[in-house]
Design a protein that fits this description.
Number of domains: 1
Strand content: 15-25%
Oligomer: single chain
Helix content: 25-40%
CATH architecture: 2-Layer Sandwich
CATH superfamily: Hypothetical protein
Structural class: alpha+beta
Number of helices: 2
Strand order of the largest sheet: 1-2-3
Shape: globular
CATH class: Alpha Beta
Order of helices and strands: HEEEH
Number of strands: 3
Distance between the termini: 5 Å
């Protein structure tokens, strides 16, 4: 499971998520047809396990 913010952002962008705004150190992503937004703190090397699970669930990624 990815826990580096740069790797998560790279995967989100590869899968069609777009960064719609940056608020301080938080990047906010949206995808056409999906109501939720995903917020990723960046730059941060190691995200906590709870936040990583939440991002995975919102993005629809299987838990590795």
């Amino acid at each position: 499971m990815l826990n580096n913010s740069a790797d998560i952002i790279r995967r989100l962008e590869r899968e069609g998520w777009q960064c719609v705004r940056v608020a301080g150190s938080h990047h906010v992503f949206k995808k056409s047809g999906i109501r939720d937004t995903i917020v990723v703190p960046h730059p941060k090397k190691a995200l906590g396990p709870g936040l990583v699970l939440k991002i995975y669930k919102q993005a629809g990624w299987p838990r590795d």
